[in-house]
Design goal:
The protein is of the alpha+beta class. It is 18% helix and 60% strand. The chain has one domain: Porin, CATH 2.40.160.20. The chain is built from three helices and twelve strands. The longest helix is centred in the last third of the chain and has 23 residues.
Length: 283
């Protein structure tokens, strides 16, 4: 329930920008030559790790490979020839696992972060005939990735008393709660994505998509003057947020085709029926 709450809470916070994005995508689709757009749900399993900018950090921090996931939706707007614009919006669960060498010995720090992610991909497809009466196409794509860091939580293991905390993006205060305070973080993160996949037709206007994608993070999670403070003063450690993500993902999507011309005709017929009904009511 917590994941669902986070997703819809921050979705509401940025709904205006999201509506503008999809309205723009719909506008492009309505003016494109095919006048057809594709939309649907999408999810992925991700393998990732954080890479530190300072290689000497590895002497005290060892970043481990982790698994995460995304869940969301997309709009695919065909452009000229075999190109299209794909706009996605997803909730992402990603984090870090660092092995810390401290004065207290070896500590395991596991964190789980929540992101709202918006990739924008330019896709080039190549049609293939895998089976009679079954339209399919494989594709290559590239584009930017924009993420918003919503929050998170974490825990320390390999200590006398394991400690769990919630992450707050603010200066430390006198709270008695279990909190990690992080100042001067980069909550908007940018990256570059490349991918390849295939769309397989399942019904007349429906396709299932399978895709492999790689994301190369460009923005660090923190800045040089970022400060990390734990409300639990018994755990002494150093952390470094001058790091970004390297992500490989397996994506699965289900595509529904919407013919914009038919949609407009349906809306026009509906409007005409409403006008006729109003005239009859006035009489």
């Amino acid at each position: 329930m917590t994941l669902v709450y986070y997703f819809f809470y921050y979705l509401g916070q940025y709904m205006r920008k999201i509506k503008l994005l999809f309205a723009f995508a719909f506008f492009i689709g309505s003016t494109s030559l095919s006048a057809q757009i594709f939309w649907g749900p999408k999810g992925s399993i991700q393998g990732y790790k954080t890479v530190f900018d300072d290689i000497t950090v590895k002497d005290t921090l060892d970043s481990k490979f982790r698994l995460g996931f995304t869940i969301g939706g997309f709009v695919n707007v065909p452009l000229k020839k075999e190109y299209s614009l794909v706009a996605e919006l997803s909730y992402v669960r990603r984090g870090r696992k660092n092995i810390i060498q401290s004065d207290q010995g070896r500590l395991t720090h596991i964190s789980k972060y929540n992101f709202l992610e918006l990739p924008m991909m330019i896709r080039r497809q190549f049609k293939v005939n895998l089976k009679e009466n079954m339209e399919s196409a494989w594709y290559l794509e590239i584009g930017p990735n924009i993420s918003y860091w919503m929050g998170g939580k974490g825990e320390f293991k390999d200590v006398a008393e394991p400690f769990s905390y919630k992450l707050k993006f603010e200066s430390a205060d006198a709270t008695t709660d279990d909190v990690m305070f992080l100042t001067n973080s980069n909550r908007f993160l940018f990256g570059l994505e490349v991918g390849a996949g295939i769309n397989l037709q399942t019904r007349l206007r429906e396709f299932v998509g399978i895709e492999l994608r790689y994301t190369h993070g460009q923005t660090f999670l923190g800045k040089k003057d970022s400060e990390v403070v734990l409300s639990n003063s018994f755990i002494q450690f150093t952390d470094n947020f001058i790091a970004n993500y390297r992500v490989a993902s397996l994506n699965i999507s289900y595509n529904f085709m919407l013919d914009v011309r038919e949609f407009k005709k349906g809306a026009s017929v509906s409007d005409k029926k409403k006008k006729v009904k109003r005239k009859k009511q006035k009489r």
